[in-house]
Specification:
The protein is of the alpha/beta class and about 210 residues long. The protein has one domain (about 5-195): NAD(P)-binding Rossmann-like Domain (Rossmann fold), CATH 3.40.50. Helix content is about 35%, strand content about 20%. The protein is built from 7 helices and 8 strands. The chain has helices spanning about 10-20, 35-45, 70-80, 110-115, 130-135, 155-165, 180-195; strands spanning about 5, 25-30, 50, 60-65, 85-90, 120-125, 145-150, 170-175. It has an 8-stranded mixed β-sheet, with helices on both faces. Strand 2 (about 25-30), helix 2 and strand 3 (about 50) form a beta-alpha-beta unit. Helix 3 packs parallel to helix 4. The longest helix has 16 residues, at about 180-195. The structure holds NADP nicotinamide-adenine-dinucleotide phosphate. NADP nicotinamide-adenine-dinucleotide phosphate binds next to helix 1 and helix 3. NADP nicotinamide-adenine-dinucleotide phosphate binds near residues 11, 13, 36, 67 and 91.
Length: about 210
């Protein structure tokens, strides 16, 4: 069981929080609107708690379920409150029309978050290639969705992998945090497939091992 703080109250926050609580993880919600945060905690039930924006999160793992443009400002706002935490960045910095990414070449939102975070915090990229509506609709077969992750700290990646595993999903480590650049491009790949070759959003990007 993991202790999770989630910043943001939107689609991804709700989907991940629901699954996390079902799997007996503890969940703390952090939103910028206290009444909305309290209302979501009540809706989720199962012991979900709330914390005010900017106060040090209690979870060992802090999931930033906010738009990419808010990721670095929020990391800076929490400051030392994120000391020692594992921070999960799930964001996609899509350019309008999914024509590219807004992050400069040779960078990623996750690496920018790591640069802004306390030195003893560990940023892990995860969940950005997984559609929120599929997370919300828990599949019949627990291994149906693959969740790619990247990070520099092996222990942090283990913690995130255990959490993902607890949700009935398959964690797949792609390597160091610099691989977040590839995962963020893969988010674009998913949107390209949804708009073209697949033609809908009811699919996931996964790996099938042949032996
Ligand atoms: N939706 C998907 O299928 C999907 C899949 C993979 C990755 N992602 C990524 O996941 C992230 C969240 O997506 P979403 O679909 O959950 O978005 P969403 O439904 O629009 O929710 C975004 C949440 O972020 C909060 N927020 C924004 N700026 C904030 C700030 N400065 N301080 C505190 N909270 C702030 C919003 O707060 P308010 O409630 O106060 O407005 C809202 O609750 C994005 O980075 C997205 O790229 C999404």
């Amino acid at each position: 069981m993991s202790s999770i703080s989630i910043v943001g109250l939107g689609n991804m926050a709700q989907a991940i929080a629901t699954r996390a609580l079902e799997a007996d993880n503890s969940v703390e919600l952090i939103g910028r609107a206290p009444a909305k945060t309290a209302a979501l905690a009540e809706t989720l039930g199962a012991g979900a708690t709330t914390r005010e924006m900017g106060a040090a999160p209690t979870g060992d793992i802090v999931i930033l379920a906010v738009p990419y443009a808010s990721v670095v400002p929020i990391v800076s706002q929490f400051g030392d409150g994120l000391s020692g935490k594992v921070i999960i960045d799930i964001s996609n910095a899509f350019a309008p029309g999914f024509t590219g990414l807004l992050t400069p070449d040779g960078s990623s939102v996750a690496e920018q978050a790591a640069a802004a975070a306390p030195a003893d915090a560990h940023v892990v990229k995860a969940f950005n290639t997984t559609f929120g509506h599929l997370l919300a609709a828990k599949p019949e077969h627990p291994r149906q969705l693959d969740v790619f992750l990247a990070g520099d700290d092996e222990r942090a990646k283990q913690q995130v992998s255990s959490f993902i595993d607890s949700l009935g999903l398959r964690p797949l480590d792609t390597g160091p945090l610099a691989m977040a650049r590839v995962l963020e491009q893969a988010g674009l790949l998913v949107m390209g497939l949804a708009g073209h070759g697949v033609g809908h959003y009811n699919f996931y990007l996964g790996v099938t091992a042949l032996d």
